Amino acid sequence: MSIIFPIVSFPYASRVLMPEGIGKVNFANSIIEYFILIAVLGINTYASREAAKIRDDRHRLSGFAREILAINFVSTVIAYLALLICFLFIPKFNEYRLLIIICSTKVLFTTAGMEWLYRAEEEYGYMTLRQTIFQIISLILLFTLVRTKDDYIIYAGIGVIANVGANIFNFIYSRKFLNLLERTKINWKKHIRPVFTFFGITCAGKINSALDAVMLGFILGDSAVGFYSAAIKITRMVTELITSTISSFMPRSSYYLKNNNIDEYKKMVGTVCNATFFFAIPAATGLFILCEPIIILFSGNQYLAAVPSMKTMSAVVIASCANSFLLNLVITPQGKEKFTLIAQITAACTNIILNSILIPKLGVFGASLATLIVEFILPLVVLAPAWKYIASWQNLSNILKSLFGATTMFIILHFFIRYIQNDFLKIAFSLVLGSVTYALSELVLKHETAILLIAGINKKLKSLRKNNE
Predict the structure, then answer these.
(1) Where are the alpha helices (DSSP H) in 174-221?
(2) Which of 166-170, 255-259, 394-398 has the highest mean pLDDT?
């Protein structure tokens, strides 16, 4: 639902608000991301990992939650004080005062939402239902209230509603797993060191993800941010579709390691590694081929300047998915987050340098080129400590099979889609033909993930036939 909502809403919003309006909202959201970062610290990843280890003990989990919320309360107050100081001393903030204030409500409710609890409990059914309800409400409000290019304030508020509503429900529903009123001794000091390690990781990560839009806003203005947002938003939607699935394995990995179930852990790492590249490589290939019709269909002809940036960033899908796999399945569950911190700091410093050089010279394309380089630095830095868990001829063989299948798909699509003029038909035809071509290639090559998918489908069909009988 996190992917579907932008696919439906962004084409409408981008046409109504135009690049300038979209740029203003994205600039404000990029600013607020840093204050959410201060409020959340590094708690989400750390708490998900630690809560997964004790999720079978309600008493210990309740005490742990109270300790985490106590830390979160203090960090949230600090975040709002920092925002107030910025309003007093940074003139650019006052130009976007109302937008930033509206978006800042995310700071409080992101902290109270305890998303880490539901990941630790693997409550993905609840998370999906909750997300669906609030995304539908937001979609209705978008089509009803956002009618002109001056409605960008309303558009920002609607984006906040989905976030705030979901987090309020999170807090209420947490009673199923916790008793926050239970009197337990709070020892929050033991969490400070790991929390700040993850804070450093998250801080550098946010710099990497939001810095491009912020620097474009300061250097080139709102329209540049709008063009860049059109390119990066579509790329990130595709990436998140894969990485959200990968991240859901992190609590299970921590649980296996805590209970010394090493065989199951290694089996899961190998399976997820193969699946990551099985989906990421053709996804990046498809984005590269279809970037122009996708931009036109989802954003409009006025965003065609974003096409070169989107082509450049299509490979980001592979790098981001590889990084997500390494962090969620190997580095974080094993408590080796210091390597992640090194990787993120290296990438953040590189990002600042590259953006400072490339944006003034190449504009939006320079920002996209910097993003591409930085995204590949991240998995390369953490590869060394993870190598012994993923290095195998079988994994390498499966990656090569994915590359061969994606290359075959690229050649066939490049030949056929030149004869299709309608952008919607071009995308639909490519999705069908590309999927079939890639699937057949992987089945012929006997890719491990393709075989597992077919086995799963056959098992499901047999179960349905049995139930019908």
Answers:
(1) 192-219
(2) 394-398
187 sits in the region (left: phi over 0; alpha: psi -120 to 50; else beta) called: beta
CA distances (Å), origin 204, targets 317, 328, 352, 368, 378: 19, 17, 11, 18, 11
- Could you tell me how many residues make up the chain? 469
| Torsion, CA 398, CA 287, CA 371, CA 329, rounded to 10 | -30
Task: Let me know: does 172 contact 113? Beta carbons within 8 Å.
Answer: no
**How far apart, in whole angstroms, are the C-alpha atoms of residue 398 and residue 202?**
31
Q: What distance in Å separates the CA atoms of residue 134 and residue 250, rounded to the nearest whole number?
A: 26
What is the model's pLDDT at position 165?
Answer: 79
What is the residue-averaged pLDDT of the chain? 83
In the chain, count H helices and then E strands: 19, 0
Please name the residue ranges forming H helices in 146-180. 152-173
Residues 6+ apart with CB under 8 A from 283: 238, 241, 242, 317
Phi, psi of 420 (to 5 degrees): -105, 125
Locate all alpha helices (DSSP H) within 327-392, ordered by sequence. Answer: 337-362, 364-390
Q: Tokens 């859901």 label which residue?
A: 248
CA distances from 83 to 155, 198, 436 (A): 22, 22, 51
| Tokens matching residue 292 | 């122009």
What region does 114 belong to: left with phi over 0, alpha with psi -120 to 50, or beta? left
CA dihedral 367, 373, 379, 382 (to 10 degrees): -100
Sign of CA dihedral 444, 448, 452, 455: positive
AA letter at 75: S
From 158, 135, 137, select the one nearest 146 (Cα to Cα).
158
126-170 pLDDT tens trace = 888 888 888 888 888 888 888 888 888 888 888 888 777 788 888
Whether the pLDDT of residue 404 is over 80: the answer is yes
In whole angstroms, what is the distance from residue 184 CA to residue 67 CA? 10
What is the pTM for the complete model shown? Answer: 0.73
For residues 396 and 380, give the distance between their C-alpha atoms in angstroms, rounded to a whole number: 16
